[in-house]
Design goal:
heterotrimer; A alpha+beta (163); B alpha+beta (786); C alpha+beta (265); A: 163 residues; DNA polymerase, domain 1; 2 domains; 5-stranded mixed sheet; 6 helices; B: alpha+beta; Aldehyde Oxidoreductase, domain 3; Aldehyde Oxidoreductase, domain 4
Chain lengths: 163, 786, 265
């Protein structure tokens, strides 16, 4: 069948990519679109370093073919915020030292972002359960959990203030 | 100074990581990029007769396939080890030859046999699978305890009985005499489980050969790029040092596994020259499980004698350490000088003897992993203390207090001299934080819910800040373990710190900058830390053994001293004052008691404009320093773990974990706490979840996250941390190092708590639910009879 | 390099014809098992037939006696579905405990059942509730569908389109996850309907999901945890591996069965 054209929307931009049907989304993102925020940490869908958002759901981009996501909206860490305009989660990860080597961080923040959409006021236990698909070897998770809870509090306060 | 020593400064490196802009080795793509994959030995031991690469070479995109014998022919050297150990009979160690790619024998599953270079990674991997191997399977020795048995398969012809060395430390006669006269003797056999380090970033290398310049560049996932360059040039003959640039860009964790220079990096450099292409290789997770150096893997028999008061009279250990199929870079020193020298723990022991037999097996190389040797010693000692307390009917905390070292410096019976500490205070603080007083009530409440609650201690000391060069040289090290720093003040007053340490999560970009901010009162944003590139930074030794603080930062302090001295000379000259009257505050050099001053950037400018410098002074403001420590530093800690075990399933929940540490001076408490969180979690992983398992033929059963259990967010609790600092008198900052403490101290605290809960001390790590349940079944009749 | 064709049919008939026309075709639903298998080069299908665009493959239909769930419905959708939560909460909870959040967002009920991984959760619910597997060709009773690990009654060109779960008066699932993979080391689905009880066990059996007759009889007599006290799980029938031996798994089956009974109330 060879390479095919697929239209995907990545971080709000329509992209035309050329991929084998067997090309994994993570490879399209990293190699074709040069979005190297999502990382590869395993082959078995356990580590979550490649987590992206597809149509409002957390998905491991190493376990989905680019062909499967044609026409869909994909958000990577690069679409969540930038060094000049950081998302509150990004700010909180920095404030609470929620990262060390940084390798798991893009997947971690992308997943945390979706978790807070699913459950805007999680308990510590719910955060730990909701983040169980993302491995971190450096932080022992404590400051990741703290960062997410802090972001939830700030996002909720902002929402209340707006209402 | 808000950005100075002791401040919780937010990390300078974070912005790029949290926005997905970090630059790791696999993110690097060069012109002319080709990709490599390796053909690997499919069995634990085999004679490789050859390969048939015809079909693979014909596949789409395949550029070249090369083998070990070709490499050998090109003069690429064999893998080396960095530390020679002498056996107790005075003979040098025996170790097998390690070719970067197999020339004749494959000795573990994953041993590299051939490299395939292709246009894409997928093509390279597919072609590697299509290479046909002609091999003859040989009997294998797999398990640590079997390696020395009569008739065990020989891993290397030149290592009789698979024994690499039979090493000893301490005084055997004295220890035997102490045990013979002891009032109580505790004996225990323990396994320190084999672990896979698992940094989240797999190893990767991009090798670029520039034919016109006859020059090589290697991007690689390294904790010590300068050492990599030295070894690649001086020993592996890839290229002379000045023709080889090694860059370790952002590195996603190491934990020891990225200290070593592996066959893949060497082979990619060589393949780049052979093919004229830039060659990139990135490990997948299964390759990482197969080929990243594993950690620990000791089997130890320990004996400890006490007098009638509970004071230790003698301690003896007998250990078999599995080194794997080949001797990796620091594999030999880990079970000896990083393990045996810590056998006194934080206790005053009058007689100690340790024996370590290091063995080859047909498994991946085993080398230093977070803690390296010290977790093995700590696990042995701390399980012995808890076991002895139970046997003697003593409170485990009291038994420890009775034996704590109280005066410093303290000379142990096993070489080391401890610098400073207050072990009683750490334990007092930990007991208070952990509310030990309330434990019995909590235990009763848990019992009412059908749960078994237990509490376990670990009080430990460890040796960080590797290490005085002359001392390690006399013990067999091939290298010195100093560190280097260069501090450059630019004409505008901004500062660059170039360090031989390497940050792969340790936050150096921030904490190292804090030193300069503190010294000169400049904003931390005006300080840049540069590391990880042999073309930019002077030779350095890299990051491992919790040495970046005590050694790396000490080198920076020395360089800052020199910069400060010169800056003061310039200021004194300009301000027509005496150097002795100058103080540095808030980015200004002031003459005390006057309003005469120079801003920091004015000094920088004066140094480079050089119109008005003191007589004979060279222009510029840039200084280099090398710091060679006079001793190790000795962080210590008291950890208390409280668990609840579900007797129906054997599931253990850590309900509270308290860690009170003494790291000496703390530069950034936020960063230090993060290091403890991560270290403790790795220790809990070792104690409860993680273990490398092979089958009898040597196949790795835990080759993916399907079977190797990593701690996840919902496996661990939030920890309670505190500190009490007794600064080390041996380095300019009083710093002791914090990177490994959590991983060193925590495993015995967890196991002591579980064995307390279940009433059975016969339990090895990892204490998985199935093992805990089985241990409970073993004591059930006894419990029922009570 | 082998070549792979990707099909995205809009009808079951087209999907079947794509599948039957392929040399080595595989149905692609969420891909959470198939992709890792392909990545580890344990499968190299010539054709992938993505069934998620076929109308009617996603969603829950309630006819009063049974819930029919489209084969391409994800675990997350089942876990969050109000009808499933109201009528078969045990099934919703099972779906909400599979893998991790990202896996639940992609993985589908049809994929899980068709694959029949011996440690997957859904087969226990299908067998425990006595569900019917609806395919492109026929309807297959759960008792006839599972034929040992990774083996089912499905033919090569047969596609699961939906699963029909009869409602039960009591139903719950208790799972003991493997510490590494989080698949079931023992998962027990217990369901009572019209006085008869079904007990299905996944994760533990040496040959995949199975029903435990002893427990079914004991619970049919009295639906209580203590009714299970004197039932026996044969350790010899259990899987034994590095995560736990047969004796441990046999114990887990009993403990999980009790927990499921307690949850089912």
């Amino acid at each position: 069948m060879g390479k095919q054209h697929y239209q995907i929307n990545v971080n709000g931009e329509a992209k035309d990519v050329l991929a084998e049907p067997r090309e994994l989304l993570i490879h399209t993102l990293r190699e074709q679109l040069e979005l190297t925020g999502p990382h590869i940490g395993c082959e078995t869908s356990h580590c979550g370093a490649c987590t992206v958002d597809i149509d409002g759901k957390s998905v491991k981009s190493c376990t989905v073919f680019t062909a499967q996501v044609a026409g869909k909206d994909i958000t990577t860490i690069e679409g969540l915020g930038s060094p000049d305009g950081m998302h509150v989660l990004q700010e909180k990860f920095r404030e609470h030292h929620g990262l060390q080597c940084g390798y798991c961080t893009p997947g971690m923040i992308t997943r945390a972002h979706r978790l807070l959409q699913e459950n805007p006021s999680p308990t510590e236990e719910e955060v730990r359960f909701g983040m169980a698909g993302n491995l971190c070897r450096c932080t022992g998770y404590q400051n990741i959990v703290k960062s997410i809870l802090a972001a939830a509090a700030e996002m909720n306060a902002a929402k209340e203030a707006a209402e | 100074m808000s950005d100075g020593i002791g401040a919780r400064v937010k990390r300078k490196e974070d912005k790029r990581f949290i926005t997905g802009k970090g630059k790791y080795t696999d993110d690097i793509r060069t012109e002319n990029q080709a990709y490599a994959a390796f053909v690997r030995c499919p069995v634990a031991h085999a004679k490789i007769n050859g390969i048939n690469a015809d079909a693979a070479l014909a596949m789409e995109g395949v550029i070249a396939i090369h083998t070990g014998p070709e490499m050998k022919e090109d003069g690429i050297g064999d893998m080396i080890t960095g530390w020679a150990i002498t056996s107790k009979d005075g003979s040098p160690m025996n170790c097998g030859v390690w070719n970067p790619m197999v020339t004749t024998y494959g000795r573990y599953v994953g041993d590299a046999i051939a490299i395939v270079v292709a246009e894409t990674q997928a093509q390279a991997r597919a072609a590697a699978e299509a290479v046909e191997l002609d091999y003859e399977e040989l009997p294998a020795t797999v398990f640590t305890g079997d390696a020395l048995n009569d008739g065990a398969a020989q891993v290397h012809e030149n290592v009789p009985g698979n024994m690499i060395y039979d090493w000893e430390i301490g005084d055997e006669a004295k220890a035997n005499a102490g045990l013979a006269n002891a009032h109580h003797v505790t004996e225990l056999e323990m396994v320190n489980n084999r672990l896979s380090p698992n940094p989240m970033e797999p190893r990767s290398a991009v090798a670029i050969y520039d034919e016109a310049e006859d020059h090589y560049t290697l991007y690689t996932t390294s904790q010590n790029p300068h050492v990599a360059r030295l070894v690649l040039s001086a020993f592996y003959n890839v290229a002379p040092e000045h023709k080889l640039r090694v860059i370790a860009p952002d590195v996603g964790g190491g934990f020891g596994s990225k200290i070593y220079i592996y066959p893949e990096e060497i082979t990619c450099l060589w393949a780049s020259m052979k093919t004229g292409r830039s060659v990139k290789w990135t490990s997948d997770r299964t390759e990482a499980f197969l080929t990243d150096a594993h950690g620990r893997d000791h089997v130890t028999k320990a004996t400890m004698g006490f007098d009638a008061d509970g004071r230790i009279v003698a301690f003896k250990t007998d250990t078999i350490a599995n080194i794997g199929a080949y001797v990796s870079l620091f594999a030999t020193v880990t079970p000896t000088y990083l393990h045996g020298t810590l056998l006194s723990g934080c206790y005053d022991m009058p007689a100690i003897y340790g024996n370590v037999k290091a063995v080859h097996t047909n498994t991946a190389p085993v080398d230093a992993y977070r803690g390296a040797g010290r977790p093995e010693a700590t696990y042995t000692i701390e399980r012995m203390m808890e076991t002895a307390a139970r046997e003697m009917g003593m409170d485990p905390a009291e038994l420890r207090r009775k034996n704590f070292i109280n005066e410093f410096p303290y000379q142990t019976e096993v070489i080391l001299q401890y610098d400073s500490g207050d072990y009683h205070k750490l334990l007092d603080m930990a007991q208070k934080e952990a509310d030990v007083a309330g434990f019995e009530a909590r235990k009763a409440e848990a019992a009412s819910r059908g749960k078994l609650r237990g509490i376990g201690y670990s009080t430990f000391v460890e040796a960080c800040g590797l290490a005085p060069s002359a001392a390690v040289g006399s013990l067999g090290s091939a290298v010195g373990l100093w560190e280097s720093a260069e501090v450059r003040v630019n004409p505008v007053g901004t500062i660059e710190i170039l360090t031989g340490s390497h940050s792969h999560g340790q936050s150096h970009q921030t904490t190292f900058a804090q030193l300069a901010a503190d010294r000169f009162g400049v904003p931390i944003d005006n300080v840049q830390v540069i590391h990880g590139d042999t073309d930019k930074v002077q030779f350095g030794m890299g990051t491992y053994g919790s040495r970046s603080g005590p050694v790396g930062m000490s080198a920076i302090m020395k360089a800052l001293d020199k910069v400060e001295a010169k800056a003061k000379k310039i200021a004194a000259h300009t301000l027509e004052a005496s150097e002795d009257d100058l103080v540095i505050e808030n980015g200004e050099v002031k003459v005390a008691g006057t309003d005469k001053k120079m801003a920091w950037h004015e000094i920088g400018l004066a140094a480079y404009i050089a119109h008005n410098l003191p007589e004979g002074m060279e222009p510029g403001l840039k200084e280099t320093a090398f710091f060679d420590p006079v001793n190790f530093s000795f962080p210590s800690g008291a950890l208390i773990c409280e668990v609840e075990v579900d007797p129906d399933t054997g599931v253990t929940e850590i309900v509270k974990f308290t860690a009170v540490d003494d790291f000496g001076t703390i530069i950034n408490p936020m960063v230090v706490e993060g290091q403890v969180h991560g270290g403790v979690t790795q220790g809990i992983g070792q104690a409860m979840l993680e273990g490398v398992v092979h089958d009898e033929s040597g196949q790795l059963l835990t080759a993916s996250y399907m079977d190797y259990a990593m701690p996840r967010a919902d496996d661990v609790p939030s920890y309670t941390l505190d500190h009490n600092s007794t600064p080390s008198p041996l380095n300019p900052l009083g710093i002791k190092g914090c990177g490994e403490a959590g991983a060193i101290g925590s495993p015995p605290a967890v196991i002591n708590a579980i064995t307390d809960a279940i009433g059975n001390n016969d339990l090895d790590m990892p204490a998985t639910p199935s093992k805990v349940w089985a241990a409970l079944q073993a004591v059930k009749p006894a419990m029922a009879a009570e | 390099m082998y070549d792979t064709n990707y099909h995205k049919p809009s009808s079951v008939a087209d999907a079947v014809s794509a599948l039957s026309g392929a040399e080595d075709g595989k149905v692609l639903a969420g891909g959470q098992t198939l992709l890792p298998t392909m990545k580890q080069h344990l499968a190299a299908p010539s054709d992938l037939v993505d069934i998620r665009a076929i109308p009617g493959m996603v969603g829950v239909d309630d006819d009063g006696d049974a819930l029919t769930i489209g084969a391409a419905t994800t675990h997350a959708e089942v876990a969050a579905d109000p009808t499933v939560n109201a009528k078969l909460p045990g099934l919703a909870k099972l779906a909400g405990g599979i893998g991790d959040p990202a896996v639940r967002h992609m993985g589908t009920i049809g994929g899980s059942v068709a694959n029949n991984d011996p440690a997957a959760d859904y087969p226990a619910a299908v067998l425990g509730l006595g569900a019917t597997v609806i395919t492109s060709k026929r309807e297959i009773a759960a008792d006839d569908f599972f034929e040992g690990m990774f083996t089912t009654a499905l033919e090569d060109d047969e596609i699961i389109t939906a699963i029909r779960f009869p409602l039960a008066s009591k139903a719950a699932y208790a799972k003991f996850p493997n510490p590494a993979s989080r698949y079931a080391m023992a998962g027990v689905f217990v369901a009572e309907s019209g006085g008869s009880v079904r007990v299905a066990v996944t994760g533990a059996g040496a040959d995949g999901v199975f029903r435990h007759e002893g427990m079914e009889n004991a619970l049919s007599g009295q639906f209580s945890e203590s009714a299970l006290d004197y039932t026996d799980v044969d350790a010899g029938d259990m899987l034994s591996d590095l995560h736990g031996d047969g004796a441990y798994r046999a114990n887990l089956v009993k403990v999980m069965a009790k927990r499921a009974v307690a949850k089912a109330g």
